[in-house]
Amino acid sequence: MAKHYNTVTPKIPREVLIGAGVVLGVILSLLLLTLRSNEQKIYDMYQEVGSELSSDHPFYEVTFNGSLFNAGIEERINEGGLFILYIGSPQCPACVATIGSIADYFYSEGMDVYTDTIYYYHDYVGVAANRDRDAFTEAYPDIARTSP
C-alpha cells in the first residue's frame, strides 16, 4: 500500500531562533564582563586588606603543577630561563606590607628589561592548595627552609 500522507517536519519559528540567539549572546557577554584577569585578581585580593599594590603591578599568579593552559613553577624551572617567584598571601601581614614595595622596586631597578613578570605563588588553605604546596616543598625543600 502506498503512502498517501505527507510526513510532518517540525519547523522552529524564526522568532524563536532569534530569541535564543539574543539570550545566548547576553549570557556570553555577561560572562566575559565578569571575568577578571589574573593580574586583576591579585590586585583585588591585596586591596581588600589595605595593601599599597598598584593596579599596574608585575605579578602573575601560578601554581606549582600548572593547569591545562598555564605552565606551573616546575615547568618554568625546567625551562631554565630567568624568572622571579614571590610566595605570598593576603592573610600574611608581612606580604601585605611588602608586595607594593617589591613591585615598585622591580620597576625602579629595571628588572622589567630582563623579565616582565614576577610569578606569584599564592600560599593559601585548602585541599588542592595543600597538595600543590606539598609537591612544591617536596621538590624544592630549600625554599621551605628559607621562606617565612
Q: Kindly, what is the distance between the CA atoms of the first and last residues, rounded to a whole number of angstroms?
A: 88 Å
Number of strands: 3
Low-confidence parts, pLDDT < 50 over ≥5 residues?
Answer: none
Q: How many DSSP helices?
A: 6
Can you list the strand order of the major beta sheet?
Answer: 1-3-2
The major pleated sheet works out as: 3 strands, parallel
Radius of gyration: 25 Å
The backbone outline, from C-alpha atoms, is: elongated
Mean model confidence by pLDDT:
81
What number of structural domains do the residues give?
A: 1
Strand content: 5-15%
Class based on secondary structure composition and strand pairing = mainly alpha
What's the helical proportion of residues?
40-55%
Run of helices and strands: HHEHEHEHH
Describe the SSE topology.
Elements: H1 14-34, H2 38-48, E1 59-62, H3 73-79, E2 84-88, H4 93-108, E3 118-122, H5 127-139, H6 141-146
Parallel strand pairs: 1-3, 2-3
Labels describing this entry:
single chain, 148 residues, mainly alpha, 3-stranded parallel sheet, 6 helices, 3 strands, elongated
Would you mind describing this structure in some detail?
The protein is mainly α. The protein has one domain. It is built from six helices and three strands. The chain has helices spanning 14-34, 38-48, 73-79, 93-108, 127-139, 141-146, and strands spanning 59-62, 84-88, 118-122. It has a three-stranded parallel sheet, with helices on one face. Helix 4 (93-108) links the parallel strand 2 and strand 3 (118-122). It is elongated and about 85 Å long. The N and C termini lie far apart (88 Å). The model has no long low-confidence stretch (mean pLDDT 81).
